[in-house]
Amino acid sequence: MSRSLAQAGLESLPMNWLFKEEPSNYNYDALARDGKTSWTGVRNPVAQRNLRSIKKGDKIFFYHTGNEKSVIGICRAAGDAYPDPADRTGKLFAVDVGPVKKLRAPVTLASIKADRRFATFVLTRVPRLSVMPVSDEEWRRIIEMSEQS
């Protein structure tokens, strides 16, 4: 459901997202240890547009890129997106996130691509995008896949 539809009647309905990170740079276990982190340094204009849309309470899949290419865990936006303090241009945004839980089993990109229900999923169509929306249906299916492993 889009946030605009949510705002039409259900003002604070959370959205679902997927954030990608190279696990050698920062991984889900580090987030769980730290308790919170600022998601900064996103440069891609489409990923930035997505990041700017994030509101407190939105759910986020933490995806490990590189050799792993898997959804690893769930985190939540600790607040609304805000201007990235490291960006002197004032154009980039950041968001603080906190851990919720690690998935029972990682859900690989290969398994997602093999499931035809993900044919329109942004991860399968624009795999390099680092911040992307996840539909409620896609969210539920990834959770199911993790539980089945």
Task: Tell me about this structure.
With 149 residues, the protein is α+β, with helices and mostly antiparallel strands. It has one domain (16-148): ph1033 like domains (ph1033 like fold, Roll), CATH 3.10.590.10. It has 6 helices and 7 strands. The relative contact order is 0.21.
Report the top-level CATH class. Alpha Beta
Residue stretches low in confidence (pLDDT < 50, at least 5 long) are 1-7
Number of strands: 7
Query: Main sheet?
Result: 7 strands, mixed
Count of alpha and pi helical runs? 6
Q: What does the overall shape look like? A: globular
Task: Itemize the secondary structure elements and their pairings.
Blueprint lengths: L2 H7 L6 E6 L6 H7 L2 E3 L5 H8 L6 E6 L5 E8 L4 E2 L9 E16 H6 L7 H4 L5 E3 L2 H13 L1
Structure summary:
The protein has 149 residues and is an alpha+beta fold.
Index terms:
disordered N terminus, ph1033 like fold, 6 helices, seven-stranded mixed beta sheet, 149 residues, single chain, alpha+beta
